[in-house]
TrEMBL record:
Its main location: secreted. It catalyses: endohydrolysis of (1->4)-beta-D-glycosidic bonds of heparan sulfate chains in heparan sulfate proteoglycan. The gene is HPSE. This is Heparanase. It is an enzyme of class 3 (hydrolase).
């Protein structure tokens, strides 16, 4: 407990303005023994001014696009238990995206859709079907993991049903949906082919689905996972093109558009982000980036407790903000995706208490 007391003391003294911890003289000794002599500490809080104000949706969640790798798994979003748990997280954004969003193609089938008039209580998933889907998902994860390891992703076609289930889930859970569009649909001159996205937006508008949009996921890795190279400046132009499409829609004219969802700044990723902002900053409402602390396939418990590893978020955040401020200082910066370890997480660590430090 003495170590915990010192940790809290250090945090309040050096990590935050507007806080004053009385009784700091105990830190001057060679040990924490002084705390036993005077265990009562007083914390004074200056509440005369707001230090930082955040959006009520500051903490938000992502449903990985791999759930749509077979459309039947999207039915899990009808689970009443899942909806109840998600409702406790509201208000928040619900982002649908990830690596496989850039391999998804909208293929309307007209017969595959939900009735927009269905109430939240009438779309429950039968218990037997929920159990079956959960069992099948265990095997599906093995297939997805193999694709991930081989960097060989198959094209996934989804129908109106996927969009309907996503919107129903977010709407019934009190979450604001952000849908990630496929940026790897390219034309002969390597600009974005927007025809499929246009088709999807038209369908969503016909159903009056109020939602926001992203385009592409971690463009810095396009070449590695799809052998397609898209530079930052061209990606920015693609976002401008998407914003133009949205401006022609009555429903999405003032809708949210976020990007480029670049990986944490390293090597060419900084240049990619800078050049993206040069051409596309005016199109987006917030600049998004992703942060992971460690590689899930090569990490340890020590990494999860290492202060230098834990500090990387603050360091990388400053780097991203520096890049954004140099081009468009008025633009908000969002951490669009984060977790402990990339590559599907670290088995026995990412799903345990210790990951809470990250």
């Amino acid at each position: 407990m003495k170590a915990v007391s010192l940790l809290l003391l250090s945090f309040f003294c050096f990590g935050t303005e507007g806080f004053c911890f009385r009784g700091q003289s105990h830190l001057n000794g060679s040990s924490a023994a002084g705390l036993d002599q005077d265990p009562d500490q007083v914390l004074d809080l200056d509440l005369s001014a707001v230090f930082r104000r955040v959006d009520p949706r500051f903490l938000s969640v992502t449903i990985d696009a791999s759930l749509a790798s077979e459309e039947r798994f999207m039915l899990l979003l009808r689970s009443q238990k899942l909806r109840t748990l998600a409702r406790a997280l509201s208000p928040a954004f619900l982002r649908f995206g990830g690596t496989r969003q850039d391999f998804m193609v909208f293929s309307p089938q007209r017969s595959q859709h939900l009735d927009a008039a269905e109430s939240c209580s009438s779309t429950r998933l039968p218990w037997w079907l929920e159990n079956q889907l959960k069992e099948d998902w265990i095997q599906q994860q093995l297939v997805l993991m193999k694709e991930e390891q081989q960097k060989s992703y198959r094209k996934v076609r989804f129908t109106e049903l996927t969009v309907d289930l996503l919107h129903s889930f977010s709407n019934c859970s009190g979450l604001d949906l952000i849908f990630g569009l496929n940026a790897l649909l390219r034309t002969a001159d390597n600009s974005w082919n927007s025809s499929n996205a246009h088709l999807l937006l038209q369908y969503c508008e016909s159903k009056q689905y109020n939602m926001s949009w992203e385009l592409g996921n971690e463009p810095n890795s396009f070449e590695k996972k799809a052998k397609i190279r898209v530079d930052g400046y061209q990606l920015g132009l693609d976002f401008v093109h998407l914003r133009k499409i949205m401006s022609e829609s009555k429903l999405y004219r003032n809708g949210g558009l976020y990007g480029p969802d670049v990986g944490q700044p390293r090597d060419h990723r900084v240049d990619l982000l800078d050049s993206f902002l040069q051409s596309g900053a005016k199109a987006i409402d917030a600049c998004t980036w992703h942060h992971y602390y460690v590689n899930g396939r090569d990490t340890s418990l020590q990494d999860f407790l290492d202060p230098e590893v834990l500090d990387t978020l603050a360091l990388k955040t400053k780097e991203v903000q520096k890049t954004v401020n140099s081009v468009c200082p008025e633009k908000s910066v969002w951490l669009g995706e984060t977790s402990s370890a990339f590559g599907g997480g670290a088995a026995g660590l990412s799903d345990t208490f210790v990951a809470g430090f990250m």
